[in-house]
Amino acid sequence: MTYDIEFCFELGLADDQISVAEGRRESHAADWGASQLDEGVVPDAVVWPESTGDVSAVLAAATDRGVPVTPYAAGTGLEGNAVPAHGGISLDLTRMNAVVDYRPADFQIDVQPGLLGSAVDEFAGDDGLFFPPLPSSGNISTIGGMIATDASGMQTVKYGEVADWVLGLEAVLADGTVIRTGSRAVKTSSGYNLTELLIGSEGTLAVVTEATLELAGRPAQKSGVRAIFETLDAATAAVSDTVRSGVDVARIEVVDGLSARMANAYQGSDLPDAPMVFLEFHANHGVDEEVALCRSIFEEYALDRFETDGEGTEMADLWTARRDLAYAVASYDADLDPLHPGDVTVPISAYPEIVRETKRLAEEADLLVPCFGHAGDGNLHYSVLVDRSDPQLVERGEELYAAIVDRAIELGGTATGEHGIGQGKREYMEPEHGDGAVDAMRSIKRALDPTGTLNPGKIFPETESGERVCDPVSEG
Amino acid sequence: MTYDIEFCFELGLADDQISVAEGRRESHAADWGASQLDEGVVPDAVVWPESTGDVSAVLAAATDRGVPVTPYAAGTGLEGNAVPAHGGISLDLTRMNAVVDYRPADFQIDVQPGLLGSAVDEFAGDDGLFFPPLPSSGNISTIGGMIATDASGMQTVKYGEVADWVLGLEAVLADGTVIRTGSRAVKTSSGYNLTELLIGSEGTLAVVTEATLELAGRPAQKSGVRAIFETLDAATAAVSDTVRSGVDVARIEVVDGLSARMANAYQGSDLPDAPMVFLEFHANHGVDEEVALCRSIFEEYALDRFETDGEGTEMADLWTARRDLAYAVASYDADLDPLHPGDVTVPISAYPEIVRETKRLAEEADLLVPCFGHAGDGNLHYSVLVDRSDPQLVERGEELYAAIVDRAIELGGTATGEHGIGQGKREYMEPEHGDGAVDAMRSIKRALDPTGTLNPGKIFPETESGERVCDPVSEG
């Protein structure tokens, strides 16, 4: 289906703010999670707004004409979140990347959505401030994308997720109305929490045009640790126990032996072929006591080595290895592709179980499934590697992938801890939330975007693949 | 207006679950913030559900008949939040007060809404766990009420508000549909954040029937401090500076000299007639360093005394005095009534300004306005005391009260940090949020409660006092 997007040229935008060139359209047809061009997902036009007014004008006109609009920025989403599934306009927000206001006395910064996450840290770094929930992809992904999926990262175990650090938003509704949500006060009980409703809604309810972020003061002390375990089960059990013991840890990441081998192949590191836990501790004082407390708990499990920073371990290299694991997995074997990026999260007491079960299922299916993740949150990243030229392998891989998500939900967890639903996980919405809750979400979608303009084909399971959650007024 | 509530007797409830007796109805006609019976706010019936099924049956039938339902529990709200403003049914949730499940290994507890907040701490205390955002009223107010207003308390400066400690909810929509929101995982990016949407919605979108709360481990060290300043301005400036310096403080409460005098009169304490700051520090180690850091900052201002626990100061008594300040203010002078409970919150850098402005306005109006509050959050509680028999004084008091709220909003703050909008602050919704955002909230209200069954007359400014946000299907 194609839409008539001629109206975009009548909105007073500059020539270089609109493109219908095939190359530009194709570059906005996919994200990391949907890296292959499927028929029908190439947008009809790409528009680069440079102001909130531009966004408002595009949305009002598009809604008027029943043309879908899908927000886009860095394209680093892993579930097809920014793919223009129904065509129409790809609204590329990367030019709206300014720091609008900075109030260090309140630990607050107002930024536009196209700003890279790491740019916030660079901007505020001289004042000793930082944005704690930055994901591992923070140097290539945008604040807008992080808000769209309620992203989180390695430091979430101590500091929380993106939603915990957003005080308010400016956003444009489907009909072009510009709203402001939240407050600059650190708490408010005034009205419905539209801020939290928009965070994680993946651009299906509004387009965020500005965000007021909270920042934190850099801790005076940091300490890094690498712990190597004899078994993966020992590693996950030690992590679960540590978190429940209230040890004040800022990062606690599990990496299995298979992932370690892949990291070594990718970047020439020499990680041992064994289950590992990387940790970082942040404190104003007493960081050594926390490390010691952690060590004492780890020693109750099958611990092989416990190395602190400088003690034979260069933590900076380890964090780089950890950060780049997704690339390492993808490039491990030219014949093997990761099927989807798994991102389940379970209650911390169930973490050993979900990892054990994942490894058992992988062995049973005879497939490579490297595992790593933000273990302190109960988060597991797993990839199912298959030879895509073999349909039987792909099917077996898909079954394995789904079985792990199902098991996470059974354990009281969620189908996605930080990557969002996008296109990839829509089928898990009803198993996780139940029909009633999904219907309530649909009601909210219809209330705020009655014509289904914004990012159609995402989050909600659809009865037919082409059906939009809300009926468009008209289609071209 | 009265409604026919005979249908309540046909829902299979026990005899003692429904009452139309005048005394029971009148006891549900007001809360602390609306302590006088106004014409028309007495409910037509009080219903005490004992299960989620009971709540569902009542809501489905009431919605079918266009009868308003207003959730009620302890009645400790300060903005008329639980007053049945349009009559109908007062749904008293105090019998649903069970601990449904307790998972100490995950620091989680599932409770019903009628449970007192302090009961959670009593239940989990043997495991060294506690519910950090408990408000000062936690021993007499319920978890459901705290969720309805997104309450917070003295420890919010360190630990956050109620919303930060709720992982998921069971709730009943206006049509009787039971939904579950959230997850037992500590983070999720799956679908719209219905949990956060319902928290703070004051029972206007759904009736919460169960909540999954997170708990925290009790800190190993606690230390209390009382600091006495020469001027209120010095006290608030010192607080603002301390918070911005990243001192790890768990409570930081300002009490002005007038409030101190009132506390002394109420409970025979001997607080000095001077501006004070009460503090508490929580840590696993290094608590003395934090106290010392705080002291060094305080000493840059006009500090009179800095007393740590045991050093001439019994902190337990001070916290009791602080906790009971609302009562002390109310009972200070038989001829003077507090007009409304003020609860504005501003960015921390603006805290000295809002307090200074409040005192200046009070002096100008020649009215008593005691001030105290959770200063670390930028929160100010103020009461305007007037002789209600003098209409001119009442008018002057109302103007003063409103001027302070207006100023808080101008400073980037909120009309209510923790008590909600209820009936009392509806006029500030549009000045604070703008028409567009309030309209978006109205759309959500209409989407989830199209007949306006749930707690009508709250949150939204109405063009006429009797108009419901959503039109009822029929009224008796």
From TrEMBL, chains A, B:
Signal peptide residue numbers: none
GO molecular function ontology, one term from the record: FAD binding
Keywords: FAD, Flavoprotein, Oxidoreductase, Transit peptide
InterPro entries, alphabetized: FAD-bd_oxidored_4_C, FAD-bd_PCMH, FAD-bd_PCMH-like_sf, FAD-bd_PCMH_sub2, FAD-linked_Oxase-like_C, Oxid_FAD_bind_N, Vanillyl_alc_oxidase_C-sub2
Enzyme class, broadest EC rank: oxidoreductase
SUPFAM superfamilies reported for this sequence: FAD-binding/transporter-associated domain-like (SSF56176), FAD-linked oxidases, C-terminal domain (SSF55103)
Cofactor dependence: FAD
The organism's place on the tree of life at top rank: Archaea
UniProt name for this protein: D-lactate dehydrogenase (cytochrome)
Species whose genome carries this gene: Halovivax asiaticus JCM 14624
